[in-house]
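Encode chain A's predicted structure.
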Amino acid sequence: MLRAQLERAEYGFLEASVLHKPSDRQLRRWILETVLSDSWQSYCNFVRHVCVQSCVGCTTSSSTIKATAVPCTWNRVSYVASRAARGHTVAAGRVNGLLRKEPTWGDPVKIATIINALNPSNKAVLLNHFSGGLFGPKHCQVVRNATAHKNTQTKTEVLALAASYSANPIRYPTDAMFWVDPPSGKFAFLSWLDDMRAIATGVAA
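Encoded structure for chain A:
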């Protein structure tokens, strides 16, 4: 599912990349903001799915993951994750049924705390891949937040990423999607998608 969603985002990005006429400016920004937001949300949903399934029990391509959540429901996993992300004490047996209370699952900074609190049997694998050093998800999150909450602070956070890329000055946060990732030679956005794919491959192995 994630791979198909990222492929659609990549296709949309490449379509927008050839829109250079002044009359296409609004359409280009709309497409870029859409594929950026869709990619970030798809990745967050993937991380959530993997964490929930790891806690309630599942089978990967190479192993069987035993359930550890008590009670063994997504609601319990949701409760523990939401409490851990906020630094709150986790109570035995409590559950959460409101998705709006859940944390930002894809955030590489918070996910380590969440996984440690959930303590699934494949914790080491999840920590290694979800918070293992690939910057794509975090950079995608920063730029996406700057498009959703346009202000000087979020734009400054985007500009702070420039040191990691061959970067040109930007007018809108989505312009950063066209910075170039030096190791791969790809546009920054495409390198973020590659990182998400690599992470997905790692946790599914």
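Helices lie at 2-17, 25-56, 74-85, 108-118, 123-130, 136-148, 152-159, 188-204.
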